[in-house]
């Protein structure tokens, strides 16, 4: 059994298996492939992002996240396969999809000698769905939303990395969008900035906007996303709703004890599935409920320092998915 | 309060492109606010003034009828704008200004990451090249206008006018009236804009091929110098009709009486061919370029 298959099973009705709603997916990729010389950057990717979802795209550096996003937006042409945004083929019908799409790709790009506000006006001038008379207000509103009003009239040249990133977000927020694509939106942001990005993603989600956010900050994705897709060496190794992925391991209790071997022996005789993981004992709670685990340990005279419910973080899932497969087999 | 108004997609077919006039205004504002554009415009304004002062100082000693274009400015102020245009063109100052704008237009936008923003707005790639070409042409027009106007002013005020009636003395030795003199300056200016259009189109083509604005300047200035070298080799005489810059001394023809139009027309036609080739390359390349 391959890694991909096992993950898709556990993900259940994940993004790859189609959205529940009848709306077309906001993003659809079929067999998308991009080759630079001899390097395969994106290797036959199939991906659906259901309308209204917040999909976190994870992957180590060089796994093809940015290349995939650039293909999806029509910034570069695929070697094979095709992509759709909001039901429109890319790049053939880009002009019909892109006005409703906001994107921050590969960092913010602005003219250094213009102020933040002037840069935004220039972006706004190119937006098909923004009426000319509405531009000044749209720019002001966007500056307020990302809290950059104070620096709006300074030259972009003098902006800090975080301020540049905020201005990039402001350009995305110039008008209501159906799809927002954010590539590493928290790059260079301070903790307050990171919270702002989280808040903005939340607001977009609440407004029904589909969000595709690339990140290598797992906590970020876990906090804001409804779906995840994990890229590894140009392929999607997992895609689906976040919650089932997190619970794929099942509930477990982590017991720290000075005598782990005795603890495992006691628990196994009590009928629990237990094993040692980095000096702690991990008990599968599906085989024995938590109170009975503790009772079994106490009655066997094993000292217990601490027993806590294990929350499988996205980090564990990610590590499991992006490293080689033997652990998946071992776990079964 | 929602300040943003969006055309409702259901009522009318949604716009797929921003109004062209708005894009052009935005582009012109960008080009004309760029500090380096303003610096080079300052240089263009300075050139005729410096020439006028130099000629006024030296003129008293070395004025002669057969000293070429610059010598003919002595006591003949309205020749100054033509001489300044010719000098700025053949010494590559004007081509430098135009190439700089073209370098920033595509290669510079790519280097700053601003081209992504434009393409994602979306601005179609055809439109992008068109808007950028207008920006480059605007700089060429304004640069020529600055040199011509400052040249005419500096010529009249600093050099003075011995022709008397506000006209000029042609290189053929005849005097023409003020109206015709202005017409001849305008002819020189128009011809120069066409030549700069050719330079700009070739520069845009190079600009579409690279992410580095400096490469555009290097290729254009290096290319111009190369043309000069090639045109100096007698064995390569057959190349002459195809080279752009070897025809540039034709600007002095506007000061002859009557004006011999064949060289001016010839160089203009050549320039139009260069424009077609340059824009063709830029469009083809932008159509397939990864941004």
Quick summary of this structure?
Chain A is α/β, with parallel strands linked by helices and 332 residues long. Chain A has helices spanning 3-11, 65-73, 94-97, 116-125, 135-145, 161-172, 191-206, 218-224, 242-246, 260-269, 290-299, 314-322, 326-331; strands at 27-36, 39-49, 54-58, 80-85, 88-90, 101-104, 179-183, 210-214, 227-232, 235-241, 252-256, 274-277, 280-284, 306-310. In chain B, 43% of the residues are buried.
The overall average pLDDT of chain B, rounded, is: 88
Strand order of the largest sheet of chain B: 1-2
Poorly predicted ranges of chain A? 1-21, 325-332
* CA distance, first residue to last residue of chain A: 11 Å
Q: What do you see in this structure?
A:
The complex is a heterodimer of chains A (332) and B (291). Chain A is an alpha/beta fold. Chain A folds into two domains: 3-246, P-loop containing nucleotide triphosphate hydrolases (Rossmann fold), CATH 3.40.50.300; 251-311, Alpha-Beta Plaits (2-Layer Sandwich). In chain A, 36% of the residues lie in helices and 24% in strands. Chain A has helices at 3-11, 65-73, 94-97, 116-125, 135-145, 161-172, 191-206, 218-224, 242-246, 260-269, 290-299, 314-322, 326-331, and strands at 27-36, 39-49, 54-58, 80-85, 88-90, 101-104, 179-183, 210-214, 227-232, 235-241, 252-256, 274-277, 280-284, 306-310. Chain A has a six-stranded mixed beta sheet, sandwiched between helices. Chain A has a four-stranded antiparallel beta sheet with strand order 2-1-4-5. In chain A, a hairpin with a 2-residue loop joins strand 9 and strand 10. In chain A, helix 4 (116-125) packs across helix 5 (135-145) and helix 5 (135-145) crosses helix 6 (161-172). The longest helix of chain A has 16 residues, at 191-206. Chain A is elongated. Chain B has 291 residues and is an all-alpha fold. Chain B has one domain (20-288). Chain B contains ten helices and two strands. Chain B has helices spanning 20-33, 35-62, 68-71, 80-90, 93-112, 114-120, 125-159, 178-209, 213-231, 261-288; strands at residues 168-169, 175-176. A two-stranded antiparallel sheet of chain B has the order 1-2. In chain B, strand 1 (168-169) and strand 2 (175-176) form a beta hairpin. The longest helix of chain B has 35 residues, at 125-159. Chain B is globular, with a radius of gyration of 22 Å. Chains A and B meet through helix 3, helix 4 and helix 5 of A and helix 1 and helix 6 of B.
């Amino acid at each position: 059994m391959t890694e991909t298959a096992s993950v898709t099973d556990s993900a259940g009705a994940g993004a790859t298996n189609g959205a529940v709603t009848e709306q077309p997916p906001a993003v659809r990729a079929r067999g998308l492939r991009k080759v630079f010389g001899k390097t395969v950057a994106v290797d036959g990717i199939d991906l659906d992002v259901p309308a209204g979802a917040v999909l976190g795209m994870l992957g180590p550096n060089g796994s093809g996240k940015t290349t995939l996003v650039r293909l999806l937006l029509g910034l570069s042409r695929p070697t094979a396969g095709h992509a759709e945004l909001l039901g429109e083929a890319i790049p053939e019908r880009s002009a019909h999809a892109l006005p409703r799409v906001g994107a921050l790709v590969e960092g913010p790009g602005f003219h250094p000698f213009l102020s933040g506000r002037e840069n935004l006006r220039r972006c706004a001038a190119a937006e098909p769905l923004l009426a000319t008379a509405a531009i000044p207000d749209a720019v002001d509103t966007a500056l307020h939303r990302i809290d950059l009003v104070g620096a709006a009239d300074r030259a972009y040249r003098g902006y800090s990395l975080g301020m540049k990133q905020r201005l990039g977000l402001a350009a995305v927020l110039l008008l209501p969008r159906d799809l927002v694509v954010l590539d590493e939106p928290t790059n260079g942001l301070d903790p307050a900035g990171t919270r702002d990005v989280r808040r903005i993603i939340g607001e977009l989600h609440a407004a029904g906007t589909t969000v595709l956010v690339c990140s290598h900050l797992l906590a970020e994705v876990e906090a804001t996303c409804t779906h995840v897709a994990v890229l590894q060496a140009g392929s999607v190794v997992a895609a689906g709703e976040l919650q089932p992925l997190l619970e794929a391991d099942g509930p477990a209790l982590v017991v720290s004890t000075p005598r782990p071997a005795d603890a495992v022996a006691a628990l196994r005789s009590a009928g629990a599935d237990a094993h040692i993981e980095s000096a702690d004992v991990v008990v599968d709670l599906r085989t024995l409920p938590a109170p009975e685990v503790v009772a079994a340990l106490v009655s066997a005279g094993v000292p217990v320092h601490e027993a806590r419910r294990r929350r499988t973080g996205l980090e564990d899932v990610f590590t499991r998915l992006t490293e080689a497969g033997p652990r998946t087999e071992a776990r079964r | 309060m929602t300040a943003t108004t969006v055309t409702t997609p259901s009522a009318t077919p949604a716009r797929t492109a921003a109004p062209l006039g708005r894009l052009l205004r935005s582009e012109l504002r960008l080009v004309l606010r760029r500090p380096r554009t303003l610096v080079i415009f300052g240089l263009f304004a300075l050139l005729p003034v410096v020439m006028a002062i130099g000629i006024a100082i030296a003129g008293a000693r070395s004025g002669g009828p057969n000293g070429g274009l610059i010598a003919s400015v002595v006591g003949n102020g309205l020749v100054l704008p033509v001489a300044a245009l010719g000098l700025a063109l053949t010494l590559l100052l004007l081509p430098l200004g135009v190439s700089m704008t073209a370098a920033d237009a595509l290669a510079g936008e790519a280097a700053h990451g601003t081209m992504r923003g434009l393409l994602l707005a979306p601005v179609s790639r055809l439109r992008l090249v068109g808007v950028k070409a207008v920006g480059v042409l605007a700089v060429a027009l304004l640069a020529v206008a600055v040199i011509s106007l400052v040249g005419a002013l500096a010529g009249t005020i600093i050099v003075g006018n011995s022709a008397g009636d506000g006209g000029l003395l042609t290189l053929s030795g005849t005097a023409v009236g003020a109206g015709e003199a202005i017409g001849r300056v305008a002819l020189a200016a128009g011809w120069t804009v066409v030549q700069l259009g050719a330079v700009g189109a070739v520069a845009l083509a190079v600009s579409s091929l690279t992410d580095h604005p400096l490469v555009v300047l290097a290729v254009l200035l290096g290319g111009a110098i190369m043309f000069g070298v090639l045109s100096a080799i007698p064995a390569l005489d057959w190349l002459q009709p195809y080279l752009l810059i070897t025809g540039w001394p034709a600007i002095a023809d506007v000061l002859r009486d009557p004006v011999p139009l064949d060289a001016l027309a010839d160089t203009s036609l050549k320039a139009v061919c260069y424009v077609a080739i340059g824009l063709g390359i830029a469009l083809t390349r932008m159509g397939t370029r990864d941004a």
